[in-house]
Amino acid sequence: MAVKINRGNALVALNLTALIDVVLLLLIYFMVASRLNEEERAIDIPLPSAANAMPMTAEPNELVVNIDESGRFVVNDREVKSTELDGLIKRSVVDNPLHPAVIIRADRRVPTQSPVSVMDICIKYDADYSLTVAEDEGQ
User: Fold this and answer.
1) DSSP labels for 80-120?
2) Residue 132, H or E segment
3) Residue 67: which H helix or E strand, with range?
4) CB 27 within 8 A of CB 112
5) Which has fewest Cβ within 10 Å: 82, 101, 113, 117?
């Protein structure tokens, strides 16, 4: 005698609830993981790209000093004089005692004395600094 096995309709309708939950969780994860933090761009300066750059793991507390081609200093979208810049860098060092950092963004046509003045102030207050000089767009 042959035995009949009734398989039922369990696999006919695929339950997509778990799949939708996973997709939504992945979407939320990637939205949170890719925080878009726009750097200060007070002056439109084309910066060179780095081939061996490493991603940052934490948001830095840095002071960004922009220098245009005439040697003017711009911090937080406003022009500052060198005496004011001295106070800003000093306050940045006091506010960030572990890693005081100053980013100097200079136009390639800027007089050499302007970035050197900012570096001198950074050295005076023992602040770490990095200098980025914009290259020509045509190169």
Assistant:
1) E-HHHHHHHHHHHHHH-SSS-EEEEEE-TTS-THHHHHHHH
2) strand 128-133
3) strand 62-67
4) no
5) 113
